[in-house]
Specification:
The structure holds 2 protein chains of 2 kinds. Chain A is built from 13 helices and 6 strands. By secondary structure, chain A is mostly helical. Helix content of chain B is about 40%, strand content about 20%. Classes of the chains: A mainly alpha, B alpha+beta.
Chain lengths: ~450, ~70
């Protein structure tokens, strides 16, 4: 990657994925950039503004914006990742971001566990060196790791009681002939497929010198069987552990599910209660509306009853009037008076029997006659039938009016005016006489 | 968006066993996405967390540890 001029710039254990064969694969190139000759400081702002998670893998020199991001910062991050692998822990767990910054700047580093092999420890220390120049390049790191892989295979083989004789410091001289070299080049059957097995083959070659071919074959077969058995055991152990872990996981998931179900039930209950309350409120509102409607209906009924009563009264009045009319007609048919047409007109014209009849009924005789017409030389305006009849000289009517203390001269304006004039004249005369007497 | 294009461009150029394989990009409703090789064991961080939970850091062999360690060189 670095040889192609690409900087990852966000190297951390979260961005490294593991294959089925547990080979690490780098991913998430979202912040990476192709290295250029004139790299400016502005390109570093991305990393500066990044989330807290990347701070743990940040190199001390890249905390200041002035320094450009180099491939050595990637190597520093790689060193932290190596530490994570060595210790199986989260880096700087339980520290503030500021304290981490200060400690990294001052040159303090994480503690490498004592179980870590020294060669790996050295590699980690080199990777996170304070000065970027001291840190190794990517190719050196690769070589060292591959070396370590080779060593570990030897280490494992020793642990598995593989009888590997010591070459150096032993009595037997490690002289290797051409034939042996050719044998040596054949990869060891156990380590087929592994690329870093040169170290081991050297050891094996010494062994070949001492043993015969038949013995060698038998021994190899035994070793194979042992190795395979051990590997099987290892796998089984791992599988059992994984199963246990999965069981624990499943239990946790079940608990979570139960919790979620309970929470959902509670929510549903709450929602139901709220719905019921809403329904009750709606019912109350409906009841109130119905009450209002009933009240309005009652009011309407009362009003209708009032109207009916009024109508009845009016009808009664009408009936009374009709009764009167019927009476008049009956009277007409029985007594056969000597007038024609309306009884009021007749009374106004001085027909005595009509006047008497009206008086008997109790009709308002002094009702003003509506039509402005002349009857017998008299002007009908502002006058009543009785006045006319009295002026015609009907004695009975005059007597009746006097008995009733009616104002006979009412509405005859010109007569009143005349009387007033006479009175005023008399008053003037009196005053004139008084003035004259005083003189 | 720029980050996405940048990443896609870079990944398409990379071809090594130590870098995740890039298959292509596509657009879906939620946005753009990068189609990559599927890593069955998840991220290194979570793998280590898993080891921690299983409480087998001590038995976790150093050979495997070296195998896990990522490579920047290619």
């Amino acid at each position: 990657m670095h040889s192609q001029g690409v900087l990852h710039r966000d190297m951390k254990s979260l961005n490294i994925l593991l294959d089925n064969d547990l080979t690490a694969k780098i991913s998430d190139f979202g912040l990476s950039k192709i290295k250029t000759k004139n790299q400016t400081a502005s390109s570093n702002i991305y990393v500066q503004n990044n989330v807290f998670g990347s701070l743990l893998w940040k190199a001390p020199e890249s905390f200041s914006i002035r320094n450009p991001y180099t491939d050595k910062a990637d190597i520093y991050a790689l060193g932290i990742v190596f530490w994570e692998i060595a210790s199986c822990q989260v880096p700087y767990e339980g520290f503030d971001s500021d304290t981490i910054k200060d400690s990294v700047k001052s040159g303090e580093r994480l503690e490498i566990p004592s179980t870590c092999p020294e060669s790996f420890k050295e590699l980690i220390e080199l990777c996170w060196a304070q000065e970027p120049k001291r840190r190794p390049t990517a190719s050196i790191v690769f070589e060292k790791i591959s070396q370590l892989m080779g060593q570990i295979q030897k280490y494992d083989s020793e642990n598995l009681s593989f009888s590997v004789p010591q070459i150096y410091g032993s009595n037997s001289d490690p002289v290797i002939t051409f034939q042996e070299v050719s044998k040596m080049e054949d990869p060891h059957p156990i380590f087929t497929g592994s690329t870093q097995n040169r170290y081991v083959t050297d050891n094996q070659s010494a062994q070949i010198n001492e043993e015969s071919e038949i013995e060698k074959k038998i021994r190899l077969a035994k070793e194979k069987q042992q190795f395979l058995l051990l590997e099987k055991k290892k796998r089984e152990d791992e599988e059992e552990r994984f199963r246990e872990y999965e069981k624990i996981k499943q239990q946790e998931e079940q608990k979570r599910k139960q919790d979620t179900i309970e929470k959902e039930n509670q929510r549903i209950d709450k929602e139901r209660k709220e719905e019921q309350e809403r329904i009750q409120k709606e019912k109350r509102l409906q009841e109130e509306l119905e009450k209002k409607k009933k009240e309005e209906e009652e009011r309407k009924k009362i009003e209708e009853e009032k109207r009916k009563q009024e109508e009845k009264e009016i009808q009664k009045k009408d009936e009374k009037k009709e009764d009167e009319y019927e009476r008049i007609e009956k009277w007409k048919s029985t007594y056969r008076p000597d007038f024609e047409g309306n009884i009021f007109e007749a009374a106004a014209k001085g027909n005595l029997p009509s006047i008497i009849y009206l008086l008997e009924i109790g009709e308002n005789i002094n009702k003003k006659y509506p039509i402005d017409e002349k009857y017998g030389g008299w002007h009908m305006k502002n006058s009543t039938p009785l006045h006319f009849s009295s002026r015609y000289g009907h004695l009975n009517v005059v007597e009746y009016l006097v008995n009733q203390k009616a104002d006979i001269n009412a509405k005859n304006d010109w007569v009143a005016f005349f009387y007033l004039m006479i009175l005023l004249f008399i008053m003037l005369l009196k005053k004139v006489i008084l003035v004259l007497l005083n003189i | 968006m720029q980050d996405f294009l940048n990443e896609a461009e870079l990944l398409s150029k990379m071809n090594s066993p130590y870098i995740i394989r890039f298959f292509g990009t596509s657009r879906i409703k939620e946005g753009e996405c990068i189609v990559m090789e599927y890593a069955t064991n998840g991220t290194l961080f979570h793998f280590l967390e898993l080891q921690r939970k299983k409480k087998c850091e001590s038995t976790f062999s150093w050979g495997k540890r070296y195998q896990i360690s990522p490579e920047v060189y290619c």
